[in-house]
Amino acid sequence: MPASTSTRVFHRQLHHDLPVAVSGQGISITDSAGKAYLDASGGAAVSCLGHGHPDVIAAMHAQIDKLAYAHTSFFTTEVAEELADLLIESAPEGMSHAYFVSGGSEAVEAALKMARQYFVEIGQPQRRHFIARRQSYHGNTLGALAVGGNAWRREQFKPLLINVAHVAPCYEYRDRREDESAEQYGQRLVAELSATIEQLGPENVIAFVAETVGGATAGVLPPVPGYFRGVRELCDRHGILLILDEVMCGMGRTGTLHACEQEGVVPDLVTIAKGLGGGYQPIGAVLAQARLVDTFRQGSGLFQHGHTYLGHAVACAAALAVQQVIRRDGLLAQVRSRGEAFQARLLEAFSSHPHVGDIRGRGLFWGLELVTDRRSKQWFDPDLKLHARIKKAAMAEGLMVYPMGGTVDGRCGDHVLLAPPFVASEAELA
Ligand code: PLP
């Protein structure tokens, strides 16, 4: 039975009939007609362990049997504490606490508010501005939408609630000039950020917010070498916080647990979600530097952001199990080695395709940028809705890929994102 016209669920897209997913196993999902779909994108880079993982399901069952939910203004739980310990053990240097929320947008909202409240607590309430990047995505809630740089998503909700200046993303394929090296290009971007900080007044800026590896707007944008080190130095010089959004690229997706490890930088706050719970439960988190948490502890003693489902016990149990499986089964190394094989396959299949302008990524996080012609790098007319047609065609073939794009003035273009589960075999990747 296709859903949508006959459904009472208010679906996000009202002009499409959706198949009804009834079961999932390994890297595929089966619909009510018995058709199987190979999940080459992990939904939206979520299902890092694929579907139906027995260890995660057992952990969730065990937690439900013991305790499904206890409100965090009354209790902490063993499982939330254990998950926080595990995450902090492997977090970037200096991180001391994990703040659990229900997903990526909420993690970004919490990080933005944490950063603002931090400056209020230390007596710098004049800091009111965030700086973020164009062609970025940080979520759909109003704060996250305000820092995000996807013009199409933002447009009808303007003016958004917080002050955000946008600078260029790190988009080497389109924006690096022929006469500059990757490093020089990165320095040029840092110089632009510096100029924006000066314009706003460095004493007025709260934080720079960026996805370490861009994801859901421009089809995977890895940073050039040295870019984030330059950003970090600049932020430090002005006492500005660095918030890295690793909701999509974090938790092993790029081959290291945190993508920022590969950049040699430590953020003040990092947001994680999708691969944290692998889709088994809705969960996200903000990992915070000790310095920030200590300020709250010694100051107001309260982060003003409590939501009802913070640190939900079953969500924490699912995430704990997912993270334990990743460590136990050596999946980070597997992401790196299978990622290399996957890259080779993608290059073999598409590097001379007339409409694939660029193939870029890290680990098991890959994007294909679609162009009318490789030399001009021109995007397709957004009215063609190419990305939507690709998705439909792929689904007809029993393949899930995550296409995005559309707005040319907002500079998105059409892209296809591939983020297969870490457990995908070489044969499945092929
Ligand atoms: N941040 C990034 C980098 C994302 O890719 C996403 C979702 O794609 C979000 C935030 C929002 O996460 P959620 O959809 O879980 O609210």
UniProtKB/TrEMBL annotation:
Molecular function, one GO term: transaminase activity
Leader peptide range in chain numbering: none
InterPro entries, A to Z: Aminotrans_3, Aminotrans_3_PPA_site, PyrdxlP-dep_Trfase, PyrdxlP-dep_Trfase_major, PyrdxlP-dep_Trfase_small
Entries under CDD domains matching the protein: OAT_like
Residue intervals passing through the bilayer: none
Pfam families registered for this protein in UniProt: Aminotran_3 (PF00202)
Top-level lineage group: Bacteria
SUPFAM superfamilies from the UniProt entry: PLP-dependent transferases
Record's keyword terms, sorted: Aminotransferase, Pyridoxal phosphate, Transferase
Cofactor requirements of the protein: pyridoxal 5'-phosphate
Family: Belongs to the class-III pyridoxal-phosphate-dependent aminotransferase family.
Protein name in the entry: Adenosylmethionine-8-amino-7-oxononanoate aminotransferase
Upper taxonomic lineage: Bacteria, Pseudomonadati, Pseudomonadota, Betaproteobacteria, Burkholderiales
